[in-house]
Design brief:
The protein is built from 8 helices and no strands. It has 197 residues and is an all-alpha fold. It has 2 domains: 15-61, Homeodomain-like (Arc Repressor Mutant, subunit A, Orthogonal Bundle); 64-190, Tetracycline Repressor, domain 2. The longest helix is centred in the middle third of the chain and has 26 residues, at 63-88. The relative contact order is 0.10.
Length: 197
């Protein structure tokens, strides 16, 4: 009697509670990096997330793993926001809202960049992947806003460079508010005047 060979076991999805723990750890880690700095201990992150250190290590076996995961999550959320805004908000408003979200993303990135620098050989790959997602999001929003007559034609990469520029000149703790004001001014300049104006 022949016995049929079984294929490999299908990859099981993590349980719902495991997914919730992972998301909670990432959100808490992001806040801990902002509150304490890039050197916040993994024990502190676990404590703030109200989980045991073993739970943290099951999801993120190294410090580098959680730093990288926080960064990837921020980039992914920023890219997904572009798609969501395109589907729910008028074109010009979608672009404006996303550029403001970009400032929040940069604020988080500035906090974890020193920790990201410890990713040996992996930082350039991580940066390249994030660049593709962010430029794709900006292109989607700009193309839609131009096609909808909300803004004058502009190269999406030029606009992205301008927004990045707003984040590089820090004016102390209120640089985020300053960058948002500059985005408002930029959008005012991009908007097309109403017909007959």
């Amino acid at each position: 009697m022949s016995v049929e060979s079984k294929g490999p076991d299908p990859v099981r999805k993590p349980r719902a509670d495991a997914r919730r723990n992972r998301e909670r750890l990432l959100e808490v880690a992001k806040r801990a990096f902002a509150d304490v700095g890039p050197d916040v201990s993994l024990d502190e992150i676990a404590r703030r997330a109200d989980v045991g250190i073993g739970t943290l290590y099951r999801h993120f076996p190294t410090r580098t793993a959680i730093v990288e995961a926080v960064y990837r999550r921020e980039v992914q959320q920023l890219a997904e926001a572009a798609t969501r805004l395109v589907e729910t908000v008028p074109p010009g408003d979608a672009l404006h809202a996303w550029m403001r979200l970009f400032i929040d993303y940069v604020a988080t990135k500035k906090v974890i960049v020193p920790a990201l620098a410890t990713i040996v050989g992996g930082w350039s790959e991580l940066y390249a992947a994030s660049t593709v997602l962010i430029t794709g999001a900006m292109s989607l929003l700009v193309d839609r806003a131009v096609a909808g007559g909300a803004i004058r034609p502009v190269d999406p990469l030029d606009l992205l460079r301008a927004v990045v520029g707003f984040t590089t000149i820090e004016t102390g703790q209120d640089w985020v508010a300053s960058a948002r004001r500059l985005i408002d001014i930029l959008m005012d300049g991009l908007r097309l005047p109403p017909p007959g104006a």
